[in-house]
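Database export, one record per block. Field names are fixed; values are copied verbatim from the stored entry.
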Amino acid sequence: MTFEELGLDTDLLEAVRDLGYVEPTPIQEAAVGKLLKGYDLIGQSRTGTGKTAAFGIPLIELIDPDDRRMQALVLCPTRELCMQVAEDLRKLLKYKAGIRVVPVYGGQPIQHQIADLKKGAQIIVGTPGRFIDHVRRHTLRTEQVQIAVLDEADEMFSMGFKDDIDLILAQLPVPRQTVLFSATMPEEVENLAREYMEDPVRIHVGEDDPLTVDQVKQYYFELKPSQKTEALTRLLKVEDPRSAIVFCNTKKRVSDLTEELKDLGIAVEGLHGDLKQVQRDLVMRRFRGREIRLLVATDVAARGLDISDVDLVVHYDLPDDDELYVHRTGRTARAGKSGTSYVFVSSREIARLSEVAAFAGAKIEARKIPSLQEIEEAKKQRLLDNLRLVLKENTQNAKNLTFGRIGKYEKEIEALEKEGYSAQEIAAGLLLLNLYVPSDQTDEMSRTPKKYLTESEKESMVRLYLNLGKQQKIRVKDLTGLLEEKCGITYQMIGRIDLLETFTYLEIPSSLAGSVIQEIDGTSLKGHRLHVEIAKIE
């Protein structure tokens, strides 16, 4: 399907082309037509899938530009997301005359917003608290609202906005069109939909796909808590990301880690709830502007941030909530790009990690912490790549009768050659000074545990069918615990686990299949008789 086939007017089509959109994303293709027909809609989609345009395009089409009163409301959980959505809508309005978008949010003097609202605005994008403030001041009137959109509804509930949302929706006119977008659908969001929406169309893009995108490579390090900072610095040296976000569970951990990394000479800033808005803005400006490439943040402080080109996400602490893992990991690999995620866990957290992986539908692979030699090799490759660029540039400059940037150092090389050293020896010596790590240096952290197999050592996996599932209250940790107790098989040896309503698929090494079936087939699990067999290939 093309945007033309969606029936958009020419002004909007031209703006869409300017934004570089070739064809609708799956969420846009599924939602735009339904919204243009006036349906209430629940869209479940990951971040970075084009959901702003999915509701923004039909919202703009439904606006009457001759009426300057508020006709559409978009609620967002955070100031940053509010600003981003407003900016995205303005881009779609590039060729549309007479339609204004005004964002209203905390952290900005309300008088500035009041002055902007007096000019008229058909579309208001706001955070719940500041929107209510404007309504109470009568600087916003709701009687002409035709469509209300809740963006990242699950985040708004997790941030404690339920009462505010109830108050806002209760004040909006009926009938109206209500649209809800959410990455996950907890019970609170379902309850809201039942109370305030009229026979909503449900769209779940990639319903059978994992919640974390395929473009994200997901790994974990098993380590002691005292090893986390060293593991993080080694990971950064090997991965060398252009930008990375490190997630911690507490404000204190963010502050302590940020200071520790700064002491190590790493350009980093922390983001947590105790920062004032002006400090928060400064941190985000530096991060987006590449002045710093590393951001350490709590989940609450990072909510609503729309940051493109994040290469690496590190879960310094394993999140307490499965959904937080999905949201964190979704910060990378946006808009079809690739990314990497690492989780730091202790041995006690391995079972918990298996639950997170099952919820996300992800295969989180074990990795050993980079060794000093691996860091040396990574630095060497980057240095050689940069050296080739410099030498190529110098050769091109020489052809243009310029001396090139490396000319200023040639005298030093000539002096060393006169002392009897060859150019090859000089170059190797410079590499040694910059990169060398003694090969016999003891490096406890990077010792490879026996359970971590290299690709060549990994054997083929076989898929087992188990006759119990969610209806029998079976959890992933019940299965992994059973396999470890009865068969001595640890979580690291288990492949993908698909826990379905009435049965489960589970991957294990082929060589262990016979003994596993013999040991656990016919046993009891949570009061149910367990049947296990090799899964039939469909």
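Remark 1: The chain has 20 helices and 20 strands.
Remark 2: The CA atoms of residues 474 and 526 lie 7 Å apart.
End of record.
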